[in-house]
Amino acid sequence: MFKDAFSFNGRIRRKEYIVSQLLYYVGLLIISFFVSEADMPIVGFLFLPLAWFSLAQGAKRCHDRDNTGFFQIIPFYSIWMFFAPGDNGPNSFGPDPKQTAMEMHLI
What's the gap between Cα 44 and its chain centre? Predict the structure, then answer.
């Protein structure tokens, strides 16, 4: 889980996407709780890696559905990605992460 978390290449399963979105929102909560309005440059500095992580994980989840990463900007599509299964077998964005996970457990 979280192999190349900041990369926009590849595919991830629903479980990794859900965990990454939970981490993103927890990170936002922590930033908003501990930083005051006077520290806005610090907020930007802390928010950029967090936003990059979330966008990268969203793009990889879109890839699992054989869509480009731009699909995540469609309203409510991120909620759809929580529930929709990925494509079975390899697609144009890489091998099936479920099969890769099963192969790792067999070795």
Answer: 20
Contact 15, 68 (CB under 8 A): no
Q: How many helices (H) and strands (E) does the chain have?
A: 4, 0
Q: Give the three-state DSSP class for 10.
A: coil
pLDDT values of the chain reduced to their tens digit, one per residue, 107 residues: 777 888 899 999 999 999 999 999 999 888 877 776 666 777 778 788 999 999 999 999 999 998 999 999 999 998 899 999 888 889 889 888 887 656 656 55
Q: Residue 53: name the closest of 14, 107, 2, 105 by CA.
A: 2
Six-digit token pair at 60?
Answer: 């990889």
